[in-house]
Amino acid sequence: MATTTPLQAQMLTSIASIVLSAALVIVTYLYYKETSYQTKPVLKPTVDKVDGILTRFAIENTGNGAAHDVVVQFGFRHLDYRVDWEMPLIAPGDRHIFYLPFDSASHLVYKEEITNEIGDSKGIIEFESKYTDAFGRPETNEEQVEVLKVLNLQEQSSELVNKDEVREVKRELKKIRKIAEDL
Prior knowledge:
Helix content is 43%, strand content 31%. By secondary structure, the protein is α+β, with helices and mostly antiparallel strands. The strands form 2 sheets. The chain has a 4-stranded antiparallel beta sheet. Strand 6 (124-132) and strand 7 (138-146) form a beta hairpin. The longest helix is centred in the last third of the chain and has 36 residues, at 147-182. The radius of gyration is 28 Å and the shape is flat. Mean pLDDT is 80; it is low at 157-162. Keywords: Membrane, Transmembrane, Transmembrane helix.
């Protein structure tokens, strides 16, 4: 059976339509994946020091999207102490701070006090979080933070940074003094 020109045109149109539909499906999928990545929340636990002495535990949304219906449990493993905490929304970049130890009446807690409280253990904070993203998809995160290890690393890195900063300030002051003398 011979094909006619109108039939060939109809077949070409059908093939073009199939190819265009497939391309549209691929582009839509790629758009969905990129949008999902851009709206994904990521809750991370951290331990840091303020002004070199005050130690605190923080929960931060490091992702690109808001975390909804947040339910978090955290605490020291060796103390059998846990905190239950809920928040309806944590926007990207939001940080919620808790002073260590968590049940302390005083917010002025020094590294030495935490070391005494932790004793011979590693001072591991167990962190578990459950939340949903903007599309209602559930997310979970379980992590451990070794308090003393983090604090020791921060002290070592801040000592190195401080020495370099002093050197840099001295260099810049010498440059300014030289410019002032030349004027």
